[in-house]
């Protein structure tokens, strides 16, 4: 396609006094988050297409949308396995929060009593740092406490995620391994099968396309509003990066919050059980309408516990990725042309730092996204065990994950004080970094590819 057919000629425009050598080109937005779909976007994105060539522009969008959909389909099973690992409740056995097991669906009044029971006070003062305490596994064996449990029928007991006999038929056993183990468990489950690996694929594709279209458009509008440099200029070529970085981050936050219902829907579609009779949502539209009906409308969906982790995630991710070239160039004084290997190692280190920062936020986000309260009191049936007592916020969720799922039960060390050992048994960061190894492996492969391309370019000069 001839570039002149897509872009308005600017040869008659006088050069800007602060950037006399700038010439608009065909380069896409450098500072947007790199997507898994492709390293390039359609040339028409973020530019003004000539009206007479609208048909060609639509063809470009359709071609890119098809490529994005195929890439999403390839990466979808890995994203599904990663999401299941992040949301599943896998606590240390000494401090597990257990769920009541009933033979009938509880009504809202019973559910409220159940939550009141779990939110009552106990001797462990650590949990009161954020929220009222919940009764842990050891408390449920006390006779006086057992009498306070809500009774749905005459045969009442409690259910542990490790209890194979009490586990629902549609729920997977605890997944102790990595993403491949989660994918294998889904395939082997009669209620899920190989099709379950592609749950939420359409929603993920739609979210990715809208993000690629809306974010550059809003960033360009903000730059025009404040009379800043064009967003096609890389930050590394600017002397004052503050204003342009602010519009970049602002556009990502605005679009991220606006599209957050799609992220919530995708997580729930992945996590829900596919078994007939217990499946909660029939698709994206059903999930969105159910959210509006049961969670307080648009105000309840947007101004919920998901707001803070959504803002943090869409702030930190573009901040680290867009400033990485600046740090390598201006702090380390390394360029890709002069030292491609060193540049690749520095890029790998910063991408690993990004994973270390964003993965816990992503984990907490997805756990909060799975907290559903229906007006009729019916449960949200998931294919993996989730925490039976809801988190009250971002900090509470992070604290509880570190306290209850920070280490595995098999790795417990004996201690002289048994009570102190139980309190400290679960502390750690393991629960916040599910899927860390495959993320790092992806970064290594990406960095290796960039380094080899740089070396090849040097040899061909």
From TrEMBL:
Subcellular location: Membrane
Domain of life: Eukaryota
Family annotation (InterPro entries): MCP_dom_sf (IPR023395)
Membrane found in the keyword field: yes
Keyword Chaperone part of the UniProt annotation: no
Signal peptide as annotated in the record: none
Keywords tagged on the record: Membrane, Repeat, Transmembrane, Transmembrane helix
GO CC, alphabetical: membrane
Name listed for the protein in its UniProt record: Mitochondrial carrier
Organism: Umbelopsis ramanniana AG
